[in-house]
TrEMBL record:
It holds the Pfam family ABC2_membrane. The lineage of its organism: Bacteria, Bacillati, Bacillota, Bacilli, Bacillales. The keyword Nuclease does not apply. It is found in: Membrane. This is ABC transporter. Keywords: Membrane, Transmembrane, Transmembrane helix. The chain crosses the membrane at residues 21-44, 50-72, 104-125, 131-153, 160-179, 222-240.
Length: 243
């Protein structure tokens, strides 16, 4: 059986098994993205144009983060509890193909939320989008990093620990990460931490792709995301290959 046929079979099996949940998660993503774009503006009496632009470019980033670091680990935790991960280990296919097929499914469910939040922000607030040709590669890079890290810790930790960590991560991403506001507002020690973690780099490359006239992203942010993605997927494949 060729690699492409194996991928096709695994993708169909995984997608059909999770199709009901994926539809539900896609709707949740749309609601979350609209909550960020519209709801967060109520925190300000008269939000400035730059504030709106941060929220409008932060919503797609948060959708990808929530998918990879929150929803996916919770699904992996459930699959571990049900014994489905052990069932996957019996499949006569490369473990990397299993993760690739799953990753494609998770990537698909983020598209409606990203598209709708961007359109709503544009027509309601006109935040000043200046979209670069890099937008699609950047979305894929952020998605792969987020999903890779999510796989890494959800396969490496117990179901309870990975679910707890996913809750901590979403709380940190929403409240203490420079995604919807500038980095300079955070304390110095937290700024240092965000130069190591991938969340700040995700926000920077997304902003630079959606508003290239207002923001730029250095090469170090792309390197940071690639390193975290490789560590996440590599760790997950190693764990899945264990007998």
């Amino acid at each position: 059986m060729t690699v492409l046929r194996q991928f096709n079979y695994v993708f169909q099996m995984q997608f059909l098994r999770n199709s009901g949940n994926l539809m539900f998660f896609s709707i949740i993503q749309i609601m979350v993205s609209l909550g960020i774009v519209i709801g967060f503006t109520y925190l300000f009496d008269n939000p400035e144009k730059n504030t709106i632009l941060f929220l409008a470019t932060g919503a797609p980033t948060l959708i990808l983060i929530i998918t990879g670091l929150v929803i996916l680990p919770q699904q992996i935790a459930n699959q571990k509890t049900e014994g489905y991960i052990e069932f996957i280990r019996t499949w006569p296919v490369n473990r990397g193909l299993v993760l690739a097929a799953d990753t494609l499914s998770w990537l698909i469910i983020t598209i409606p939320g990203i598209a709708i939040s961007t359109l709503v922000a544009h027509y309601m607030f006109d935040p000043g989008y200046d979209i670069s040709w890099t937008i699609l590669p950047v979305i894929i890079l952020i998605a792969l990093t987020s999903i890779g890290v999510g796989y890494g810790f959800s396969y490496g930790l117990s179901p309870l620990a990975s679910m707890a960590l996913s809750q901590v991560l979403i709380f940190g991403a929403l409240m203490f990460s420079p995604i919807n506001f500038p980095m300079e507002r955070l304390p110095e020690w937290l700024q240092t931490l965000h130069h190591i973690l991938p969340l700040y780099s995700m926000a920077e490359v997304m902003r630079a792709s959606m508003a290239q006239g207002a923001f730029t992203a250095g090469i170090e942010h792309y390197i940071t995301l690639i390193i975290w993605g490789i560590l996440g997927f590599g760790g997950a494949i190693l764990i899945l290959n264990r007998k």
